[in-house]
Amino acid sequence: MLMIFSAWALMFITTFLAPPKHLWALITAQGFFITFFSISWTFLQDFNFSHPLFFMDKISAPLAILTCWLFPLTMLASQSKMRLEPIARQRTYITNSTFLQFTTLLAFTASDLMLFFIFFEASLVPTMIIITRWGTQERRLEAGMYLAFYTMLGAVPLMIWLTKFYTTHGSLCPTFTHTMHITQAAMNCPGLFWATCNTAFLVKLPMYYFHLWLPKAHVEAPIAGSMILAGTLLKLGGYGILRTSPLLQEVTLNQTLFIMLIAILGILATALLCLRQTDLKSLIAMSSVSHMIIVITAALVSSPWSYSGAMAMMIAHGLTSSALFCLANTSYERTNSRTMILLRGVMLILPLAGAWWLIIALFNLAIPPSINFAGEVLIMVSLFNWSPVAFLIVALNLIFTTAYTLYVLWATQRGPLPKHIKTLFPCLIREHLLLLLHISPGFLLILKPELLFCI
Ligand SMILES: *[C@@H]1O[C@H](CO)[C@@H](O)[C@H](O)[C@H]1NC(C)=O
């Protein structure tokens, strides 16, 4: 564990000492090295690891591995644009994104909920820097403001609650809170209490009504920013909800019915909104909102099956939506446009990229033996157990998910070739490698899905 953390720290040194010519190669290689070692965490018995500072179990370890996995991929993805910039700017870009991934990783492996909270908030700073400094359009400042204000407002109640919890129970260690039986004094509105304590996570995930910052942030962010946002930052919220829910055990589903209702209708609403988007990146962002709200419903149902489903869903979504952003970026780098109508008919020019679009779209709509499907089935089964009506509404969402995914596929791949895209440069091996590395864990996890099950 410490070895991996020192490898991360070495990353900063490499960034500043590496000769400009080999900068990206060295950084990417080192990233893959870290990934390789982080995979060794799967050999731990039940992912259990504890140390005064670090702690891992079945909820945090898969997400920590996902964070390490995505880091070299973001570096692979951002090379072509960044190479054109002055060398000092390249170096600050790399340090900022390393710092971002590193704080996320520390948040997932922190042994104390207060530490988790600190790193959770710390990840906001580099995200904002990446969006506002390396974003491409002038609305990026607005996107940064949205991101900062939504996140910070949500964080206040959580901090108050954590402090209160510490003063009454004397510890915030996740293991301790799992074993302890908490007897809370009777409250007036436990549902409201649940919602306020979890606002920080609900904003991060994001819950419907709190999701406005996400499409903005995604549209303005550079590729590494989008990948990290979709891949790991949203999962911080999901992790937080799953982690703190044993502390709020007294709250039953009936008291949070209102939140459940918003969540379920939000799934439908965002899926429908996806059908009306014209901007490719904001469509993918909306589809992440729709997928992550399913995680909220799973956390609300809170049965072992729904937790396992939520884990599988988060990992699958991290890989798939990050891959979708990479694909959107390959089109964007060639045409400088995110408007879907301008990207029509690319399949004729880039057939292999067309194949990737198809595979990743199929993953996004949870085609059977994929890990996305496993997650969705587990969540749907536990929802059905709770209420068949809720199940029916979420099942309706499957149709809309299929509809908008096919819409993306058709809008970007099929149709007559517009006149302006006759001179595209072909797909590079780097891009194929990038997509392959996104999809292969999805395939491999099908063979061993119990890695993600926290029963
Ligand atoms: C992030 O970038 C800014 C410049 O925009 C730089 O001043 C800062 O040191 C960078 N942060 C890290 C952690 O390297």
Automatic annotation (TrEMBL):
Its EC number is 7.1.1.2. One of its GO terms (biological process) is ATP synthesis coupled electron transport. It is a multi-pass membrane protein. It catalyses: a ubiquinone + NADH + 5 H(+)(in) = a ubiquinol + NAD(+) + 4 H(+)(out). InterPro entries: NADH4_N, NADH_Q_OxRdtase_chainM/4, NADH_UbQ_OxRdtase, ND/Mrp_TM. The chain crosses the membrane at residues 27-47, 59-78, 98-131, 143-162, 182-203, 223-242, 257-275, 282-301, 307-329, 341-366, 386-412. GO terms for molecular function: NADH dehydrogenase (ubiquinone) activity; NADH dehydrogenase activity; ubiquinone binding. Belongs to the complex I subunit 4 family. This is NADH-ubiquinone oxidoreductase chain 4. It comes from Odorrana tormota (Concave-eared torrent frog). The gene is ND4.
